[in-house]
Amino acid sequence: MRAWPVVIGMALYGLVMLLIVFWPVPVDSGMHARALVQWIIRTVPGMTYDRVEVASNVAMFVPFGAGFALLLRRRWTVVLFALLTSASIEIAQALLLPSRTPSALDVLANTTGACVGVAMVLVWQWSRERG
């Protein structure tokens, strides 16, 4: 597989991530985002705001895990890189963005998302090898 499409995709993903994580106010504070979150809570049985937030943090890092798993040979380093990246984001938000709320749960959810991305790549590669 050629790496350049993955590199370009990861660069675009990184730009979007920078906008999301360093937006000066919580991303879900806008009218449209708030309406979407409320719709999800009303539509999905058992869904709460906290569960939507955790699921969003997991989903946000799935491409991180998948992209770096495609680029790096030592896949376990992707999980470590995700943990360090997520912790750095939360620290930066705590220091630079007073309206954002840093959370250890976000670090756990982000790292979980990266693990899901790595697992998806491993399953995909395994299924290709099996024919």
What percent of residues are in strands?
under 5%
Compute the CA-based radius of gyration: 16 Å
Q: Sheet with the most strands?
A: none
Terminus-to-terminus distance? 16 Å
Principal-axes geometry comes out as: globular
Poorly predicted parts: none
Helix content: over 70%
- Count of individual helical segments: 5
Taken in chain order, the helices and strands follow as HHHHH
Overall mean confidence score, pLDDT: 94
What's the total count of β strands?
0
Structural class: mainly alpha
Quickly count the domains.
1
List its salient traits:
about 130 residues, single chain, mainly alpha
Quick structural gist:
78% of the residues lie in helices and 0% in strands. It contains five helices and no strands.
Can you describe what's shown?
With 131 residues, the protein is mostly helical. The chain has one domain (4-130). The protein has helices spanning 4-21, 31-43, 49-71, 76-96, 104-130. Helix 1 (4-21) runs antiparallel to helix 3 (49-71), helix 3 (49-71) packs across helix 5 and helix 4 packs antiparallel against helix 5 (104-130).
